[in-house]
Design brief:
Layout (H helix, E strand, L loop, with lengths): L2 H4 L3 H26 L7 H7 L62 H4 E3 L11 E7 L8 E7 L2 H15 L17 E5 L12 E7 L6 E8 L4 E6 L6 H11 L8
Antiparallel strand pairs: 1-2, 2-3, 3-7, 4-5, 5-6, 6-7
Amino acid sequence: MNCQDARWSPGRRWLVAAGTALGVFTLYLAVAAVAHAVPFAAGSRAAAATPAASAAPSARAAPRASAAPRSAPPASAVPRVSAAPRASRPGPALAAGVAPLTRLLPGDIEDPAASCTAARPPFQWSMPGLVQALACTDPGLPGGQVFAYQLDGPADFQTAWRSFNDWWGITRVRAGQNCPPPAGGAGSVGIHNAWFPDRPGQVLECEMVGRGGGTQPAYAWAWPSEDAFLVAQAAHGSSFTALDTWWTNRSVPGRRPG
């Protein structure tokens, strides 16, 4: 090897320096691991025993909504107790001395439980204080249906009855004084029977409902003493004469309602 080959070039000096530095750093790491110097400080083991930083909410993150107060203990620290059921608000109830709606149905509906179902809102008119609404099939009215509604007192009954009349249009026409009505017309007449003596507002109303071939003769009548009114719609295409015959003979309750 000549002298020229024995001399170090600047590049070789850099490689030797880098190698020396790497060796020193490796030795440092070995010593630091034993002496607990940075980054192997003794505190790093304690940190490993705590939840990872990623599991804790960030200081900038919005707090999650919780039903428990912030001072409450963790859910795992308290026993689970079944929540007591909330007391339901009582619904509208019948006024004192008023017969229930099932006792006001036409007499040939002998078994309301089998012939009627609850009529559910929404309705097409206002009925505040509604206690019960029923939709029934009547064996004496084939192809038709009977609807019955009862309110919780005279004030709500009058509101519902007026609203119903506005909806089906009796208030917008000049109703005659008889039912059945004249062709294309409407009627309103006072009524009474053995169970319901004559009194103001106790009326029968009549009007054709529907359009074209889908028209149905309909009767609606009110029992103000019972805060109730009923509607009977006969079959499509049937006559008012047939509906009137049914109403006269079968619409009255089969026994005294009270």
